[in-house]
Write a structure and sequence with these properties.
Elements: H1 2-9, H2 16-45, H3 52-65, H4 67-70, H5 87-96, H6 118-129, H7 149-159, H8 161-164, E1 171-172, E2 178-179, H9 187-196, H10 211-226, H11 240-266
Antiparallel strand pairs: 1-2
Helix pairs in contact: 3-6, 5-6, 5-9, 7-10, 9-10
Length: 267
């Protein structure tokens, strides 16, 4: 009887395992949130504080050009998402590439001539960032395209090539969306796209790709952009599709033309 009582006391409650898992998830989630907040704060701390004049200019520009869709307090509307927490990098990317203000509703915003000067873009970015912390405009030391091109090319193939093509030529996605080509894109905008994840692109924060990794990816992209194709005409760098189409049209077309010419000569 004594033995039976002891074993009964040592038996674990059926919900003990569930409680342990819940506690583990709670602590791991809290640690990740704290780490993400610390990373965002560190990014923000590297940026010099904006002047009051710049913030006032940004407020005027935002009210005149952005508030209709994004709300006066950046809360978002049915026509545009909230901008709270997007940071300076997102504004610099969207406005600096001409995607915003949006020209027309569609599957995704397209690149077009930018409508704001660099100083006005910086004022808009500073004003949006003043509401809530977010990714800052990258430091110049990560934009020199002097990193490790081999490492950058490997990282690009692993993380980016499935959408942007292994040569950065872009590619089609679903529902009329697409991954844009990366040729002619500035180093700053490439970096900002990685840390903000515009439209269909995932976010690559410093926990996924370090600033040095992002520098290496930029280096690889600029190397491919500035290095002539060793195989001759790139044909859009779309691979066997464009190459096969070229052979089909011009190769077979040439054979047919020669055949017609020989037949005409023989007659």
């Amino acid at each position: 009887m004594a033995t039976a009582k002891v074993s009964k006391r040592g038996r674990r409650h059926p919900l003990a395992n569930v409680a342990l898992i819940a506690i583990g998830l709670l602590f791991s989630g809290g640690a990740y949130a704290a780490f993400s907040s610390a990373t965002a704060s560190a990014d923000e701390s590297t940026k010099a504080p904006s002047s009051q004049e710049q913030l006032e200019n940004g407020e005027k520009l935002f009210a005149a050009n952005c508030a209709t869709c994004h709300g006066m307090n950046l809360e978002g509307t049915s026509d545009g998402p909230s901008l709270l927490g997007v940071g300076e990098a997102s504004v610099d990317f969207q406005v600096g590439t001409g995607r915003m203000p949006l020209q027309m509703q569609g599957p995704q915003a397209r690149v077009k001539p930018k409508q704001f000067t660099e100083s006005d873009t910086a004022a808009l970015a500073a004003y949006v960032a003043s509401f809530a912390p977010g990714p800052a405009v990258p430091e110049e030391k990560y934009l020199d395209a002097q990193g490790d091109a081999a490492n950058g090319a490997e990282l690009f193939r692993i993380n980016c090539a499935m959408c942007h093509n292994v040569a950065g030529a872009g590619g089609a996605l679903t529902e009329g969306k697409f991954a844009p080509p990366l040729t002619g894109v500035t180093e700053a905008h490439i970096y900002e796209a990685m840390v903000t994840g515009p439209q269909n692109m995932p976010v690559f924060n410093d926990a996924n790709l370090s600033p040095e990794d992002k520098r290496d990816i930029i280096t690889a992209l600029k190397y491919m952009e500035n290095t002539p194709s060793v195989g001759g005409f790139g044909l859009g760098s779309l691979g066997p599709v464009s190459e096969g189409l070229f052979i089909w049209i011009f190769g077979l077309g040439s054979i047919v033309a020669i055949t017609v010419w020989i037949t005409a000569k023989s007659n």
